[in-house]
Design a protein that fits this description.
The structure is a single chain. It is built from 3 helices and 4 strands, in the order E-E-H-E-H-E-H. The protein is an alpha+beta fold and about 100 residues long.
């Protein structure tokens, strides 16, 4: 079984399995750190960047970063096939590619 979690801070939704990994404070803190870093270090850069999330799990960090103007594309890689299927669904329900 799974449920949909609303990520109100970025206006996204995420499918979360009842058994297994959950959205934790670690993912939220890491995404906030990345946002602050890019906001501080790249204020004047006009060229957009590509982001790679290795071991993406269900894609929480990619979803949290998907609205950043500095990022043009995000690649999210996950080796576990069943978790990757959830990641794909999370991309789909948020109208991302």
């Amino acid at each position: 079984m799974s449920y949909i979690e609303n990520l109100e801070s970025v206006n996204k939704k995420m499918i979360v399995r009842e058994k297994g990994l959950k959205i934790t404070q670690d993912a939220i803190l890491l995404s906030e750190f990345i946002k602050k870093y890019f906001n501080a270090e790249y204020k004047n850069i006009k060229e957009k960047k590509t982001f790679l999330e290795i071991g993406a799990g269900q894609g929480i960090i990619s979803l949290l970063l998907s609205e950043m103007n500095i990022i043009s594309k995000i690649f999210a890689a996950e080796i576990q096939k069943d978790i990757f299927k959830i990641l794909e669904k999370n991309i789909e329900i948020n109208n991302l590619e």
